[in-house]
Amino acid sequence: MTPRGAGTAGIKALCFDVFGTVVDWRGSLIREVRVLARAHRLKVDAAGFADAWRAGYAPAMNRVRSGALPWQHIDALHRMILEDIAPSFGLGDLGEAERAELNRAWHRLRPWPDSVRGLRRLKRRYTVATLSNGNVSLLNNMAKNAGLPWDLILSAELFQHYKPDPEVYLGAARLIGIEPAELMLVAAHKSDLRAAQACGLRTALVERPLEYGANRHPDPGPDASFDLNASSFLDLATLLDA
Amino acid sequence: MTPRGAGTAGIKALCFDVFGTVVDWRGSLIREVRVLARAHRLKVDAAGFADAWRAGYAPAMNRVRSGALPWQHIDALHRMILEDIAPSFGLGDLGEAERAELNRAWHRLRPWPDSVRGLRRLKRRYTVATLSNGNVSLLNNMAKNAGLPWDLILSAELFQHYKPDPEVYLGAARLIGIEPAELMLVAAHKSDLRAAQACGLRTALVERPLEYGANRHPDPGPDASFDLNASSFLDLATLLDA
Predict the structure, then answer these.
(1) Are residues B75 and B149 in the same domain?
(2) DSSP-assigned beta bridge partners for residue A14
């Protein structure tokens, strides 16, 4: 038992939330939008645009989770939100090709500086898998672009349910072929971890204080209700003896 | 256009049959059974046992495909066949722990000598994925054990259909986010390749003349109806400029 957490015996696999936990969606989107704006000589509030795009995500998923929208993957939801917000950020005149390319920015998100090295260490001892609401092709393109060394790419798309629906967490354990208590969810978001806990998974909070920029940190830790609290994937690897 | 095949432009991803194409199931099972027999001082026809276990596979899958059995993954089918054949090979007295461990031999199958190096080359240029009737956990354990560098582990289990049902080939293209014509199936078995062709996939035959031992080669090539014919994964990488 350590002050930072306990109870890691018997863990066989780690699954990772991706947006915010593995990759810096906000910084990556800001960079992409700035490049686009410069190329088209537009003046865009890139940080405001990134925040608005991400803010549309949970409500759109909830419309799918509630049945108000039929199942569709995140690429489609991102595009729907983009159509909604583009005009108010001065991007209303972008053509179809530019919109499709901008929507693919989510396939090119960049990892936090410790993500790749931490995953490489963890992979030597554990199965490391995504467990993301992002679709499989998005996660695969991201992994190939960023060098993320996943053993398995698991996605809400495989279960036709979005997190925090229990089907996602329990489906991951079933596909990996282990018990829920042998699977640890790693995430920067306490709500995701709490939903995993309710399904019997182990949990590790990795703080990403810059996810929403320097002035907003909605999920500060540590929190003793999780099995582990870590400051980075390298710290997590050390806590898990990897 | 070369004598060995043509038409590789526009290919974005390769998916691989696994049993026989990537790994040597027969040689691997023979080794495992010999070790087991020695430990228990049993006399077992290891090659005959491996062949009988594999021979039960297609009929068992067909019972699932026809609806005679409810959906179940390959681990369960392998175990069912093992129970059937164990007594006639002198393995009827094995206890539950030994049977479970023997059934896991399919998770430890060894790759052909060119598989890992060929996949590493192909992975630099293409998405490389399994497309196997083996379940996800079997394929993941095999990959970690053998060092197979998959980008994606795709399995019949994800579609609740076994090859050669079209749902498997079309489902793979859908999850990878590409058109069927942008996906190439690599297999040592012509029936698998023909079913993929019927779904619009590209095809590459890689001959594995030793799959059934030195005296039986049911699928000799080349065959001009496939896009490519290769003698190994290294040869395939060369044909695909990887």
Answers:
(1) no
(2) A128, A184
| CATH code of the domain covering residue B194 | 3.40.50.1000
Q: Is the ipTM of this complex over 0.85?
A: yes
Q: What are the two backbone dihedrals, phi and then psi, of residue A127, each rounded to the nearest 5 degrees?
A: -70, 130
What is the extent of the structural domain holding A216?
A: 13-24+109-239
A157 touches chain B (CB under 8 A): yes
Q: What is the pLDDT of residues B176-233, one digit of tens each?
A: 999 999 999 999 999 999 999 999 999 999 999 999 999 888 899 899 999 999 999 9
The answer to whether the CB atoms of A176 and B136 lie below 8 A apart is yes
B87 to each of A41, A156, B45, B93, B95, how far by Cα in Å? 77, 43, 12, 8, 12
Pairwise CA distance, residues B149 & B143, whole Å: 7
**What are the DSSP E strand ranges found in A30-148?**
127-132
Is residue B155 situated within a structural domain? yes
Assess B152–A contact: CB distance below 8 Å, yes or no.
Answer: yes
Compute the radius of gyration of chain B from its Cα atoms: 18
Cis peptide upstream of residue A222 (ω within 30 degrees of 0)? yes
Same domain, B85 and B145: no
- pLDDT bracket for residue A3 (50, 70, 90): very low
Query: What distance in Å separates the CA atoms of residue B192 and residue A185, rounded to the nearest whole number?
Result: 37
| Distance separating alpha carbons of residues A240 and A221, to the nearest angstrom | 18
Distance CA(A24)–CA(A212), nearest Å, equals 9
Nearest residue to B154 via CA among B39, B13, B11, B2:
B13
Q: Is residue B189 part of a domain?
A: yes
Picking from A137, A153, A175, the nearest residue to B137 by CB comes out as: A175
